[in-house]
């Protein structure tokens, strides 16, 4: 269920601190290739995509090569990890971590739906620090094994501290046992915004999820930001147009 992103063209201007404009959007996405993790992160920052110092520190601390086992792991494009899923392009990870930066504070709890390779879950774990907790959920057991092995080879203390935990389950239902969550990231496109995940947000929490939208004969996906206010009310905002694999069941995913 990890995202397979083919387009990051903006549909709307994301909120501060990203400060993305229509004029510079094409120059930023897809041009942040690196030969090292440091070079990749530096280019994402220089492009204005990686807009949080804490998100930058996380992407420096979590080596993408430990999660992407193909040649040239620092290219700014999605890469296959098996089971008809991919690890997202680095610029999409940078967007996600920047958008969720305030919610991924020290001691926060986060849910990564469609955790795939474990990369984004590990970045989240770095941001919530030792008092925090990140749950990565996947419906393919083999991906749980892969992501656990990746984290063990990159940042084993995340597992030793129980700062990160990978579980097998239907991400569309979330993981209520560990909730509520300050931050929820969904790495696959839902037909409709999952109310179950909104219910698992803590007050002050934020969810980002790609959701299918149809206008006339056009079918596309909007990355939606959902904020739960202190009084429990919900605010929704369209951030950008994206393209992710569907949020679906295991048999459909493997068949596709």
Automatic annotation (TrEMBL):
Localization per record: Cytoplasm
One term of GO molecular function: protein-L-isoaspartate (D-aspartate) O-methyltransferase activity
Keyword Chaperone belongs to the record: no
InterPro entries noted in UniProt: PCMT, SAM-dependent_MTases_sf
Keyword tags: Cytoplasm, Methyltransferase, S-adenosyl-L-methionine, Transferase
Catalysed reactions, as listed in the record: [protein]-L-isoaspartate + S-adenosyl-L-methionine = [protein]-L-isoaspartate alpha-methyl ester + S-adenosyl-L-homocysteine
GO CC term (a single one): cytoplasm
Domain of life: Eukaryota
Gene Ontology biological process terms in this record: methylation
E.C. number: 2.1.1.77
Family: Belongs to the methyltransferase superfamily. L-isoaspartyl/D-aspartyl protein methyltransferase family.
Entry-linked PANTHER family: PROTEIN-L-ISOASPARTATE O-METHYLTRANSFERASE, PROTEIN-L-ISOASPARTATE(D-ASPARTATE) O-METHYLTRANSFERASE
Name the UniProt record assigns to this protein: Protein-L-isoaspartate(D-aspartate) O-methyltransferase
The species this protein was found in: Cardiocondyla obscurior
Taxonomic lineage: Eukaryota, Metazoa, Ecdysozoa, Arthropoda, Hexapoda
């Amino acid at each position: 269920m990890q995202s397979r992103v083919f387009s990051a063209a903006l549909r709307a201007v994301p909120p501060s601190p990203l400060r993305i404009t229509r004029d510079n959007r094409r120059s930023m996405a897809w041009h942040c290739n690196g030969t090292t993790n440091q070079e990749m992160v530096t280019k994402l920052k220089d492009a204005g995509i990686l807009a949080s110092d804490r998100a930058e520190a996380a992407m420096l601390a979590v080596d993408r090569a430990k999660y992407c086992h193909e040649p040239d792991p620092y290219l700014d494009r999605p890469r296959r990890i098996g089971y008809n899923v991919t690890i997202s392009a680095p610029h999409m990870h940078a967007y996600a971590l920047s958008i969720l930066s305030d919610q991924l504070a020290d001691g926060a709890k986060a849910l990564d739906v469609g955790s795939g390779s474990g990369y984004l879950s590990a970045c989240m774990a770095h941001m919530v620090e030792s008092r925090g907790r990140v749950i990565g959920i996947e419906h393919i057991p083999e991906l749980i094994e892969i992501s656990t092995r990746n984290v063990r080879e990159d940042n084993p203390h995340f597992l030793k501290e129980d700062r990160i935990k990978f579980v097998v389950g239907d991400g569309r239902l979330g993981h209520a046992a560990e909730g509520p969550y300050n931050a929820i990231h969904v790495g696959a496109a839902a037909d409709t915004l999952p109310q179950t995940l909104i219910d698992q947000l803590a007050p002050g929490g934020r969810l980002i999820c790609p959701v299918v939208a149809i206008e006339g004969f056009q079918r596309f996906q909007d990355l939606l930001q959902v904020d739960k206010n202190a009084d429990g009310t919900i605010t929704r905002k369209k951030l950008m147009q994206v393209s992710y694999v569907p949020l679906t069941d295991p048999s459909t995913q493997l068949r596709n």
